[in-house]
Amino acid sequence: xxxxxxxxxxxxxxxxxxxxxxxxxxxxxxxxxxxxxxxxxxxxxxxxxxxxxxxxxxxxxxxxxxxxxxxxxxxxxxxxxxxxxxxxxxxxxxxxxxxxxxxxxxxxxxxxxxxxxxxxxxxxxxxxxxxxxxxxxxxxxxxxxxxxxxxxxxxxxxxxxxxxxxxxxxxxxxxxxxxx
Length: 180
Known about the structure:
By secondary structure, the chain is an alpha+beta fold.
C-alpha cells in the first residue's frame, strides 16, 4: 500500500513539475495542463505462459506502470496546448520467459472533467529488451503528444488516464490481489 501511495505521489510530482512552460523564457503565463493520472486497476501487468495458469513458474513478465513524465506547452501562436507525456515502467522477466523481449501494451485516454465520457483513447506498446544477464529494468515509453484547444478552461477540464491494456483475466487478477 505504501509503495502505491509513493508511486502516485511521485507521478503527481512529475506531472506538476512538467506542466506549463517550455524551455524559453517568457513573460506570458505557462500553458495549462489537464489532470494526468494512472488508473489503479491498470497499473500492473502480469503475463503467464498461455494455458499454464497463474502460477509463478508460468510467469513470463511482471510489470508496473510506476509513473510518467509530462510537459504542457502552447503550440505555435498559442492556438492550442500540446501535452507530451511518456510512461515509466518497472519490468521483471519471469521464469517462463522464452525470449529477451517483453511487449507492454498500454493506453492513454482523455476524459471529460467528471470521467463520464472518453473523448480520445490511443493504444501503444512499449517494447522492453533484456540483456542476457538482466531480469529487471526500468524503461520509459516513447513520447505521446495530445493536442487540446488553447482555451484554458477546456484544457484544465480534462483528465488524461494511463493504464496497461489488460485482458479480462489480467484485470481480474489485479482486482483480486489489490494494489501492490
